[in-house]
Prior knowledge:
Blueprint: H1 21-26, E1 31-42, E2 46-49, E3 54-62, E4 64-69, E5 75-79, E6 83-85, E7 92-95, E8 103-104, H2 105-111, E9 119-122, E10 128-138, H3 145-149, E11 154-156, H4 161-180, H5 185-207, H6 214-219, H7 221-232, H8 240-247, H9 251-262, H10 266-283, H11 289-295, H12 301-312, H13 316-322
Parallel strand pairs: 1-9, 2-8
Antiparallel strand pairs: 1-10, 2-7, 3-6, 3-10, 4-5, 4-7, 6-11
Helix pairs in contact: 4-5, 7-8, 10-12
Amino acid sequence: MSIRSEPRQPAALPPALPFDVLTDVMEQVRLEGTVYFSAELRAPWGISIVRSGRAPFYAVTAGECELQVGRRGAVRRVRAGDFVLLPNAAPHVVRSGKDALVVPFDNWLQAHPLDRRGGTRHGGPGAATRVTGGFFSVDPLRINPLFDALPPLIHLRGDDPRVRQALAPTLRLVEEEIAAGGLGAHTVLRRLADVLFIQAVRLHADGERGAAGWLRGLADPRVGRALALLHERHAEPWTLDSLARAVGTSRTLLAVRFRELVGEPPMAYLTRWRITRAANLLHGARQPLARIAEQVGYQSDAVFSRAFRRVTGQSPRDWRRLAPPAPVEPLA
């Protein structure tokens, strides 16, 4: 007597993860070069930093210091374990305290030159502060919506368990690579800079509650769904009507809510995002302009070129010619 076995059912596929808009946006951020330094500073000391296009970050590993963005910004006390990122390269002052003499950054470097591993020291009679930091060279084409959504200063506090868990291992690797200075250290440090930037932005985004702007739009059910569709299917011929139908709301409600949270109409946002992607493609392999235009949703070179010029102020050919990838350069 034979036993007939039932056919085996194929295993069910796991549900697809929802499209991650924040990841999509961060992948289009160009950190074109990163340089690092480590400093041991004894009070009193103060440094004024104005580095256009160079977004600094600081990890205080011992002691504490003050940081002030602009002349009228609030003074922040940054303590051991804290991490600070200035994503839009805002002018700022870092100092031991309010009575410290503040000198321009270039003058500081002349008086306290870096050694071959980026180390510097300042001797004084006061308390010691140790800082590991660096500068991201950010893409001069600042049309990525992430930059508009980020504040001038992201201050992540070391007493937050999420911050310790996310950043401490990466910062430890950074310090080890700087100290060792081994083969391939520049490449490793560049990759770790990307990780630090992404971690800092993600921690900031996770901590946002009720803030205005693009990050708040991601959290809104309808606007967040619209943003996900525009990013995941950016090359499709969207209209406000088709987007509203896909989201499941009226075009009027979507248009009003989208502009309220994101700061511009849905179709204007789509154009800017397409051009952001196209600008990064122009940095890469020498694809024909027609191919790049098609990848970001334009069937006509002329329409693509007009949109690119309207958003960036340059033609695609001029952007490709004038904005090559920046090399890694030393801090000094």
